[in-house]
Design goal:
5-stranded mixed beta sheet, Nucleotidyltransferase, domain 5, 13 strands, binds zinc ion, single chain
């Protein structure tokens, strides 16, 4: 059975799948990156994982994978197939496409940025299905974005497009890891809400999910923390939709798991801030943590269709 290898590399763990021609997940597996043993180990772990997946395909589907797609965190030069930088994995200029191609017997390999790859899957297979223009914004430890245009994701001239988490929404706000102050992700990421709620509730172990539960049960301290995060989020999102005019705004990541506790006030806050802008539909992401893997599969299949038509 014809299939491709899809790999989604995170900071600590990797998800992988063999993906069929129709996008079906034929086989799924997980493995640790081994990042505590250094950058060379993580690269070797990825190569070994990919080789094992290839062997699994030969054994169970009668042929080896025809291509591979890999999503990685940090800064990615997709055109050159290089993982330029990852603070999490300690990478600098890793020629991952070439290394994987060699390890996998010369099959074509596509390299993608994790959030843009997840956005590709949300746009084609998930919440954005059928939307010609969308913005995918996962709210996790940080906040990133993927700009969807006609079935592809805009990477920008240098591979930095979509970094909406570093739009400054409160110039007098907290210091951000990027060096600015008051970036949206210092106020509206799941990590920011966790920090704010741990301080407000007096429970150092309380997190963003606990805050959402307290909001749902009517705790006024939680409501204040939540309203502050929603306000910062709406400010950043309105900046984005003023620039991009997306048809759909897809919100994912840990904070979106709060459901209508997030989406109802967020829709109101965005509407209140917008003046002339056309409001996009604001919806939760649909694919959860499989988005990166499904997107990596799409990258691999796209590579083959490009090669055939080229
Ligand atoms: Zn920042």
């Amino acid at each position: 059975m014809r299939h491709v290898i899809a790999l989604d590399v995170g900071g600590t763990g990797m998800k992988a799948a063999l993906v069929g021609t129709d996008g079906a997940l034929l086989y799924e597996a997980r493995r640790a990156t081994g990042r505590e043993r250094g950058p060379d180990t993580t690269v070797e772990t990825i190569l070994g994982f990919a080789a094992d997946l290839r062997a699994y395909g030969i054994e169970h589907f009668g042929e080896s994978a025809v291509a591979a797609g890999v999503a990685v965190p940090g800064i990615v030069d997709a055109a050159r197939g290089i993982a330029v930088y990852s603070a999490n994995l300690g990478w600098r200029d890793v020629p991952l496409r070439e290394l994987l191609g060699t390890r996998l017997g010369g099959v074509p390999v596509a390299l993608g940025h994790d959030v843009r790859t997840g956005g590709l899957a949300e746009g084609r297979l998930g919440a954005g299905r059928g939307a010609d223009r969308f913005l995918f914004v996962p709210l996790g430890t940080g906040i990133a974005g993927a700009i969807g245009i006609e079935g592809t994701i805009e990477a920008g001239a240098h591979g930095y497009a979509g970094e909406i988490g570093h739009v400054v929404v409160r110039p007098d706000g907290p210091v951000c890891s990027c060096g600015q102050t008051g970036c949206m992700e210092t106020l509206a990421s799941a990590a920011a809400v966790t920090r704010a709620w741990a301080a407000a509730s007096g429970d150092p172990a309380a997190d963003a999910a606990d805050c959402a539960k307290a909001v749902a049960s009517g705790d006024p301290r939680a409501e204040a923390v939540w309203a502050d995060a929603v306000d910062a989020l709406a400010a950043g999102l309105v900046t984005a939709l003023t620039l991009l005019d997306p048809r759909m705004l897809i919100i994912g990541g840990g904070l979106a798991e709060a459901g209508e506790t997030l989406f109802t006030p967020l829709r109101v806050a965005v509407k209140e801030r917008a003046t002339f802008q056309k409001l996009p539909e604001i919806v939760p992401a649909a694919l959860g943590d499989t988005a990166g893997c499904l997107g990596a599969g799409l990258l691999a299949w796209d590579l083959l269709s490009t090669e055939v038509s080229a």
